[in-house]
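Input structure tokens:
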């Protein structure tokens, strides 16, 4: 019966054969994430699939392969690929989510939970092995591809500007290179100004901002202040740049929407800027203007070379952090 389980696992359409030849891997059909549409449609109709077991308590047809495939899909959705210890207590929530999703679509007894979770662990190990064989090893199974990827990633042909590091690089290239901007900007510690502190004591946060402004307020050159702001929404960060002399605030957010999503932040920053200008006896000529930064110097479409470059950077990240 173990052979039957292995056969079902190898036949599922979302599980990769980590031990297959490199030629087979390179020639496989490229496709997106498996979503198991038949299961989703049945679940939307309130239907569940029956699951059958052999005398040795192994999955059998009908629907055995379907459940095995679905478990492979779920484990990649709810368990991080960086996981190298399936028994880690940190995976408890993810495992519970996998089991609840299985019960939503299959008639399965609680006594089968251990079997399904163990199968999920096998699917995760198989997926990690597939990534290692495809991206990190050569035809002989050695990790020589890693050296090649490291060299290519060290001299990228195309600047990559997504993510936090990309934002910083883009900002430096656009605003600072060849200018004197480095002499007129300051950073405000994100640990002191965030949603939690503003909610608890907005007045204290405002006064701390004013004190920070006053430190550099005697300089003849107007200051530009950068504030990385933790919105508290699942750890999402935005960047706020305040030009105190021009009463301009620039808002940078990788997600749709603007500063209206965080009214307490805007109110506190506006109050701090106005109070600072009042202390310095500056005339408030106009209201503070907020501008959402929407332009990013990115490609409208990505060529094969662009995709290869990003793939190399991902491989290098995996190598450097010993993920696999």
């Amino acid at each position: 019966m173990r052979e039957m389980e292995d056969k079902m696992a190898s036949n599922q359409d979302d599980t990769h054969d980590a031990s297959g030849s490199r030629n087979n891997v390179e020639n496989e059909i490229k496709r997106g994430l498996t979503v198991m549409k038949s299961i989703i449609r049945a679940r939307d109709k309130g239907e569940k699939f029956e699951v059958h077991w052999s005398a040795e308590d192994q999955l059998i047809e009908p629907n055995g392969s379907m459940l095995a495939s679905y478990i492979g899909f779920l484990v990649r959705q709810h368990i991080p690929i960086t996981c190298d210890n399936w028994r880690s207590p940190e995976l408890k929530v993810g495992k519970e989510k996998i089991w609840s999703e299985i019960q939503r679509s299959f008639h399965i007894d609680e006594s089968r939970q251990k079997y399904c979770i163990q199968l999920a662990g096998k699917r995760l190990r198989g997926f990690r092995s597939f990534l290692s064989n495809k991206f990190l090893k050569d035809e002989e199974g050695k990790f020589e591809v890693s050296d090649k990827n490291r060299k290519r990633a060290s001299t990228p042909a195309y600047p990559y500007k997504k993510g936090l590091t990309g934002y910083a690089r883009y900002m430096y290239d656009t605003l600072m290179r060849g200018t004197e901007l480095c002499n007129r900007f300051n950073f405000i510690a994100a640990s002191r100004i965030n949603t939690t502190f503003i909610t608890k004591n907005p007045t204290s946060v405002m006064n701390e901002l004013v004190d920070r402004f006053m430190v550099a307020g005697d300089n003849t050159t107007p200051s530009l202040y950068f504030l990385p702001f933790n919105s508290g929404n699942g750890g999402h960060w935005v960047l706020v740049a305040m030009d105190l002399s021009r009463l301009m605030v620039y808002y940078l957010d990788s997600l749709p929407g603007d500063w209206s999503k965080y009214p307490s932040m805007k109110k506190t920053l506006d109050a701090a800027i106005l109070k600072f200008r009042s202390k310095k006896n500056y005339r408030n000529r106009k209201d503070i203007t907020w501008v959402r930064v929407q332009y990013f110097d990115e490609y409208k479409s990505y060529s094969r070379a662009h995709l290869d470059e990003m793939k190399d950077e991902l491989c290098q990240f995996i190598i450097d952090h010993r993920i696999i």
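The beta strands are 49-50, 52-53, 59-60, 106-107, 185-187, 224-230, 237-243, 248-252, 289-292. The first helix runs from residue 2 to 11.
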